[in-house]
Amino acid sequence: MIGSILRALAGHDRATPATPADGMPEAGLTRLGFLKLAAAGTVAAGFATSACAGASAKPGRVPPVTSIDDLYDAWQNRMNTADLEGLVDLYVEDVTYINPEGVLLHGKDAVRKDFEGILALKPQIVLGDRRHILWQDVALTTNHWRMTYPGADGTTQVMTGGGIEVMRKQADGGWRYIIDDASRSASK
């Protein structure tokens, strides 16, 4: 395909007459040659776009959250929609995490297991009073949260607390938690 584009640009495309009446090759492309070139370019661009998208997207990987201001909304949305993989993607592999009950956990796998249990409750969370302080590629953040979920008896249960987190901007431009203290003690 690239060869046909180069031939068309060089005027060697078969749709371009080799010699006009005066015996000299025409400069430029004929209308048909131009249309073939445009079509080939469109097809090539489509393949290149598909190839680039396939190369940059890893299966199961969500796009990184590149704005620290959007990180709270992304976390809240992923929790409220039970997007386990999207939620876990907001953490680095070796994250230190303290869950709402005060249990210290290490690593994404431990966070995933903890979130599986929380998401089974079908919670809805609101992160309020959000604040962050930036230093280069590191952020210290705080928030207060309110989580509701259906109790075993059908009544709405409410849990409140606070979070203190440390996030770092990663090589892919996304902000991810390196330390997350979601325990209720963080709000005291």
TrEMBL record:
Residues 68-176 form the DUF4440 domain. InterPro entries: DUF4440, NTF2-like_dom_sf, Steroid_delta5-4_isomerase, TAT_signal. This is SgcJ/EcaC family oxidoreductase.
